[in-house]
Amino acid sequence: MLKKTLVSSLMMGVLLVTSTVFLVSKQVVADDDDGENHGSKHVYSATLPVWKTECGECHIAYPPQLLPAASWQKMMGSLDEHFGTDASLDADVIAEILPFLEKNAGSERKYAAATGKSDMRITETRWFIKEHDEVSASTWKRIDSPANCAACHTTAEQGNYDEDFIKIPR
Ligand code: HEC
Ligand code: HEC
C-alpha cells in the first residue's frame, strides 16, 4: 500500500517536472519567435505586394521583422533622403506600406541599434553584428555592402535566411 502510494507520487512528480520543462521551453521558443515563421527559423514570409515592389526595387525588400516599428516610422517619414538617394513615395502608398511594417516589426529590445550607430540600418543593429560575428573582415571587404544580403543568403529574395542556404562568396 505504502509502496503503491510512493510509486504513484513519484510518477506524479515526473509528470509535473516534464510538463514544467515543456511549458518553459515553449515560452522560450515563443519569446524568440519575433514574427518568424512556424518551426522554420529565420524565414520571414510576411509580404505585401506594394511593399515588395516599391521597397524591393533598389535592394531586396528587407524583412520588417529586423527593425523596430520606430525605425520604420522614421524611415517612411524621410524617404526623400533615403541613405543618400531619393526613394520618395506618394502619401497613399506610404499609408499602405507603413502599417505592414509596423505590424511585423521586431522588438525594440532585440533589434536596437548598436552604440553610436544608425537606427535605420538592420546592418547596424546589435542583433545583426552579433549574428554575423563569424564573418571575417576580408569577406566583408569582398562584397560591396553588408546590406547586400543576397551576396551570401542565396534565398534572401524569398525572405529565407536559413543557414542552410548561406554561401559565402570567394
Ligand atoms: C531608389 C532606390 C531605393 C528604394 C526605392 C528604396 N531603397 Fe532602401 N536603400 C537604398 C540604398 C541605396 C540603401 C543603402 C544601401 C547600402 O548601404 O548598401 C538603402 C538602404 C536601406 C535599408 C538599410 C539597409 C541596412 O544597411 O541594414 C533599409 C532598411 C531600407 N533601405 C529599406 C527600404 C524600404 C522600407 C523601402 C521602401 C519604402 C526602400 N528601402 C526603398 C535605396 C532604395
Ligand atoms: C558576407 C555574407 C553575409 C551577408 C552579406 C549577410 N549575411 Fe546574414 N549570415 C551570414 C552568416 C555566415 C551567418 C551565420 C549563420 C550561422 O549561424 O551559422 C548569417 C546569419 C544570418 C541570420 C540568422 C540565420 C540562422 O539560421 O541562424 C539572419 C536572419 C541573417 N543572417 C540575415 C541577414 C540580412 C537581413 C542581411 C542583409 C541585411 C545579411 N544577413 C547579410 C552571412 C551573411
Automatic annotation (TrEMBL):
It comes from the Bacteria. InterPro entries: Dihaem_cytochrome-c, Multihaem_cyt_sf. The keyword Signal applies. Residues 1-30 form the signal peptide. Pfam families: DHC. The keyword Signal applies. Keywords: Signal. This is Diheme cytochrome c.
